[in-house]
Design brief:
The chain is α/β, with parallel strands linked by helices and about 110 residues long. About 40% of the residues lie in helices and about 20% in strands. Strands 2-5-7-8 form a 4-stranded mixed sheet.
Length: about 110
């Protein structure tokens, strides 16, 4: 097993086999990791699958501004909320562009 820098592993997570957990990645509590985890990715489930991206600026903030690097289920939940908000904003942007295109606006 290889754990790169700034990895977070939740309680009761199991990591099995010769896998690499990429820099800044987060493993949700109770997850079963059987494959490599890409950098700055949150994984969860049994077996673990990518569930969100971990924004690099959040990792940098925790390290350089807060001065700590604590992990918990609430933090991983925060990544999920952030990812959902980003997806909703992207969908709204696409809908607005489609509506503008239908109305013949540039």
């Amino acid at each position: 097993m290889i754990f790169e820098d700034y990895v977070r592993v939740g309680a009761n997570a199991m990591i099995i086999g010769p896998v690499t957990i990429g820099e800044g990645a987060a493993v949700a509590p109770g997850a079963l990791v059987l494959k490599d985890v890409p950098p700055y990715t949150a994984v969860g489930g049994v077996p673990a699958k990518p569930i969100a991206l971990v924004p690099k600026d959040i990792v940098d903030y925790e390290l350089f501004v807060k001065g700590d690097f604590q992990t918990g289920a609430d933090q991983i939940q925060g990544y999920l909320i952030f990812a959902r908000q980003q997806k909703e904003e992207e969908e709204k942007r696409k809908a607005a562009q489609a509506q503008a295109g239908e109305q013949g606006e540039p």
